[in-house]
UniProtKB/TrEMBL annotation, chain A:
InterPro entries: Mur-like_cat_sf, Mur_ligase_C, Mur_ligase_C_dom_sf, Mur_ligase_cen, MurCDEF_CellWall_CoF430Synth
Occurrences of domain Mur ligase central (ranges): 150-329
MF terms (GO), sorted A to Z: acid-amino acid ligase activity; ATP binding
Transmembrane segments: 65-90, 96-120
Entries under SUPFAM superfamilies matching the protein: MurD-like peptide ligases, catalytic domain, MurD-like peptide ligases, peptide-binding domain
Alphabetic keyword roster: ATP-binding, Ligase, Membrane, Nucleotide-binding, Transmembrane, Transmembrane helix
Protein name in UniProt: UDP-N-acetylmuramoyl-tripeptide-D-alanyl-D-alanine ligase
Mur ligase C-terminal domain residues: 354-475
Gene3D superfamilies for this protein: Mur ligase, C-terminal domain, Mur-like, catalytic domain
TrEMBL record, chain B:
All residue ranges annotated as the ATP-grasp domain in the record: 152-364
Note describing how the cofactor binds: Binds 2 magnesium or manganese ions per subunit.
Name this polypeptide is given: D-alanine--D-alanine ligase
Similarity comment: Belongs to the D-alanine--D-alanine ligase family.
Pathway annotation from the record: Glycan biosynthesis; Cell wall biogenesis; peptidoglycan biosynthesis
Assigned GO CC terms: cytosol
Length: 484, 398
């Protein structure tokens, strides 16, 4: 039976590569893989049907993709024309053989051509990129604003948003709105600055060793925040030490007394040095967090410093955000913001899009969108928050991606956490990591129910049919197309 | 959810649309929650069977998605589809005729039709003839419930309270208006004038004086050939109660419609506040569930609801509507609906029954009834044909 299924799947894949949509799929896959050829090839190997790779997103036509799309079709049609030419010009039987080879392998030739073109573009882009980096460095040296850089395996965007909201009460703050964390995207952001900003906040993305150093040298931050180190992107880094080394490249550019490190992240705390400021959900050395409480309306807590207390509320959910808030408060205080400005700033922090973002379905079901949160620490925080809520609780996940060699342990741990938290329903998407989570649930003596679906849209449709008023549904991570 | 291969799945036909004023509502009911729940459950191969306003039948899986019916010119797209036929060959089969003909044996039918030619028992009669198990009330209960006068007669005969009413046919009205008006004037104003067979308050008028009565009757007769005139209950608490089950019915929550206009009309029911009821089926945000009435009244409503359900011989699902005088708490049975819009899933959810549980339970109830119906013998062997003479007389009273 399995052999038959494998043969059918193989035939479907072979035929789908000869479908007219194949070129579009290739271009989409290149775009979604950010033109990283290794990632593209891994994805290409996994695809079962090339007609349907655009599930969650669709190909965006940019000058680059238009060129690739056109090139793909030109190569494909040229190869087929070549087959006709060969058929009529070469002597039998070689004409049959060669023409058939060209016809059948035209998709492969088109794909190789596209990859070759992407490599050529990269070489061509290099000097352009260097030019933009140099120009950005120059702009930033001339800019009067304080530069704060954020690095870490997770939580960078949340940290940026918290910091921006808090500092904006007393200072003019600029920070890129999206995940602008590569040299070119940062260059784009810097180009749009007006020059009168007091504070500039940057996210430094890390995919390979040296990435953070390169960005830090470009930005030249005076202040730094390390949000933590975990298994996110471990597939690229290989071992956690490499991730830690890369994230802590930021420390090379910032004075130790202005480097904030997440004390709740074991690896980050272990690498921190004397003089660094550790922040946790209990606060920092100067600012203590007391009486924290969280629910769907956000978090409420008291900040204490030298006998002065401030009662604050943020509509961001989850106690895990107390750490970033404490770091932001500490920095705000050192930059001279008054207590009332700090509390007003915290009050203006809002739930971040797709990160523990609560929504209400019309039938009284609470839906928590944590679909952009795909790292072990984020999952732990989400489970902790879900466990604190009332009602029948559903935890929906396809698992995490890029956990590398620790993929099994990471997912077993999530299963154990879910069991320990007493979540009533765990909804698993049938991915390569689902069995690890099930093992973890079993090991944790999970008492609830496990539901399984083929993909996230099916799971969401089913949940609409299964949910009752008062239920809470949390969506943890949604795999992009390249991992589905 | 488990993985069900095609061979393990049951073929279920969800029939909707039809020659009815509630054609569009039926499309919504069919999808939310019925088809949506059946599809995600994975145990069924769902065949959407759409009956066009003209009466043609179509079955194409593209119609499993409600979005199909929201696109422009969807009716033209339907008209281009191959019409299907039905075969009653030891059950029900859908047949796509033509060169590439196809047949699909249907294991169970889920009627999702409101109003005439569907909810009124017509479809149930057809399915009984086919010998196919189907969800919901059977022919007799559906036919009685569709006729507001027959419903009141059955309910009153069983000793349950109904408001004073009179009724007449179009012929009676045409032949002798005076007598009909005299009959109607025996009631105290205000009264409601209603077409007997229509739902969703179509053609219904609240009449405050005799002057308005004539016009209201003409309006009602425009939609139906039988008209009911009944006393208005004021001050009014309107309560509606969904019920599910065969022999042992269970009730959902008492629900109080939040009337925006003088009475609860089509727009209140389906387009409250002018908002589309997208994603919530045919009913959303127009009622209070559970109704804010005291427990004693709520229990009486539920008790009476079950009595009505049983008296009419309902099965599967139905909704019983009540009129209650707010000051005296006098309670009257108003009418019975054998296919509540979108199965009143919003109410069942409040009662702790999810869409999936509701739909699957209704399928189970239908199968259960079908098994029990098989225990009944409908034919018997006789030698009457041998005894019959050439004149056709056998000397027996038949």
């Amino acid at each position: 039976m399995n052999n038959k299924r494998q043969t059918v799947n193989g035939a479907k894949r072979w035929l789908s590569r000869r479908h007219w949509n194949y070129i579009r799929s290739l271009v989409y896959m290149l775009q979604a893989s950010e033109y990283i050829i290794v990632d593209f090839l891994k994805w290409h190997e996994r695809v079962k049907d090339f007609r349907f790779v655009e599930k969650r997103k669709h190909l965006t036509f940019t000058p680059k993709t238009v060129i690739l799309f056109t090139l793909g079709w030109i190569v494909l049609l040229a190869t087929l024309s070549g087959a006709v030419f060969v058929f009529y010009t070469i002597a039998s039987p070689w004409n049959y053989l060669l023409a058939a080879l060209l016809v059948f392998e035209a998709p492969l030739i088109a794909m190789v051509s596209l990859l070759f073109f992407v490599i050529c573009m990269r070489f061509a882009q290099y000097p352009v990129e260097q030019f933009f980096i140099a120009r950005t460095k120059k702009h930033l040296i001339a800019h009067r604003g304080i530069k704060i850089a954020i690095a870490g395996s997770f939580g960078k965007t949340s940290m940026r948003e918290v910091l921006k909201a808090v500092l904006s009460e007393g200072r003019k703050v600029a920070a890129p709105g999206e995940s602008y964390n590569t040299p070119l995207s940062i260059a784009r952001f810097v180009k749009e600055l007006k020059g009168d900003e007091d504070v500039l906040i940057f996210e430094l993305g890390e995919y390979y060793p040296g990435d953070v150093r390169k960005l830090a040298q470009m930005v030249r931050p005076e202040w730094g925040i390390i949000t933590g180190v975990n298994e996110a992107h471990l597939e690229k880094f290989g071992v956690l030490k490499n991730t830690t080394d890369t994230v802590f490249e930021l420390a090379e550019s910032v004075d130790a007394s202005r480097l904030y490190v997440n004390g709740e992240s074991e690896l980050a705390r272990a690498r921190s040095k004397g003089g660094n400021i550790l922040y946790t959900r209990s606060g920092t050395e100067e600012w203590q967090v007391k009486n924290p409480n969280t629910d769907l309306s956000g978090i409420t807590f008291t900040l204490l410093k030298n006998g002065v207390s401030i009662n604050v509320h943020s509509s961001v959910c989850g106690l895990h955000v107390l750490g970033p808030l404490s770091a932001a408060v500490h920095i705000a205080s050192r930059l001279g913001l008054a207590s009332h400005e700090i509390s007003d700033g915290i009050a203006k922090t809002k739930p971040f899009a797709h990160r523990l973002e609560p929504k209400q379905w019309p039938d009284g079901v609470t839906f928590i969108d944590d679909s952009y949160n795909g790292n072990p620490d984020g999952a732990r925080a989400a489970i902790e928050f879900l466990a604190s809520l009332q009602g029948r609780r559903f935890y929906v996940t396809p698992g995490l991606v890029e956990a590398g060699l620790r993929i099994k342990e990471v997912h077993e741990e999530i299963g154990k956490q879910l069991a320990k938290a007493g979540i009533e329903k765990v909804v698993l998407i049938r991915t390569s990591v689902a069995s690890y989570m099930e093992s973890g649930l079993q090991a944790g003596d999970f008492k609830g129910e496990i539901l399984r679906y083929d993909d996230m849209p099916s799971a969401l449709a089913a949940l609409r049919a299964l949910a009752l008023p008062g239920d809470v549904i949390l969506i943890q991570n949604d795999w992009p197309d390249q991992y589905a | 959810m488990g993985v069900y291969t095609k061979n393990m799945r049951k073929n279920i036909a969800v029939i909707f649309g039809g020659k009815s004023a509630e054609h569009d509502i039926s499309i919504i009911t069919a999808h939310v929650p019925i088809i949506d729940s059946l599809l995600v459950n994975g145990k069924f191969d769902v065949w959407p069977v759409y009956i066009a306003k003209g009466g043609s039948w179509y079955a194409d899986k593209a119609m499993n998605n409600l979005a199909f019916f929201k696109q422009d010119a969807w009716e033209e797209k339907v008209a281009k589809m191959k019409k299907i036929g039905l075969l009653f060959d030891n059950g029900l089969e859908l047949v796509w005729p033509g060169l590439l003909s196809k047949k699909v044996k249907i294991d169970i039918v889920f009627p999702a039709m409101h109003g005439t030619y569907g909810e009124d028992g017509s479809l149930m009669g057809l399915l009984r003839m086919a010998g196919a198990p189907f969800v919901g009330c059977d022919l007799a209960a559906s036919a009685v419930a569709m006729d507001k006068v027959l419903t009141k007669q059955v309910v009153a005969a069983e000793g349950m309270p109904v408001v004073p009413y009179v009724w007449f046919t179009r012929t009676e009205w045409k032949e002798d208006k005076e007598t009909v008006l005299t009959k109607a004037k025996t009631l105290s104003m205000p009264v409601f004038v209603k077409p007997v067979h229509l739902g969703s308050s179509i053609g219904m008028t609240r009449v405050k004086n005799e002057k308005e009565l004539l016009n209201a009757i003409e309006v009602a007769l425009h939609y139906d050939d039988k008209v009911l005139v009944e006393n208005a209950v004021e001050p009014l608490i309107e309560i509606t109660l969904p019920i599910m089950g065969n022999d042992k019915p269970r009730v959902a929550e008492c629900e109080r419609p939040l009337n925006k206009t003088e009475f609860f009309d089509f727009n209140d029911k389906y387009l409250a506040n002018g908002k589309k009821s997208e994603g919530s089926g045919a009913n959303s945000a127009y009622s209070e569930v559970p109704a804010n009435i005291d427990d004693d009244l709520s229990n009486k409503v539920k008790e009476l609801g079950v009595r009505v359900y049983k008296a009419l011989g309902c099965a599967g699902i139905a909704r019983v509507d009540f009129l209650i005088r707010a000051d005296t708490k006098e309670m009257y049975v108003n009418e019975v609906n054998t296919l509540p819009g979108s199965l009143y899933h919003h109410n069942w959810k409040k009662a702790g029954v999810s869409n999936m549980e509701l739909v699957l339970e209704l399928v189970r109830l239908a199968e259960d009834r079908f098994v029990r119906q098989k225990e009944t013998t409908y034919t018997f062997h006789s030698d009457i044909l041998q005894k019959v003479g050439s004149s056709g007389k056998v000397g027996l009273k038949v």
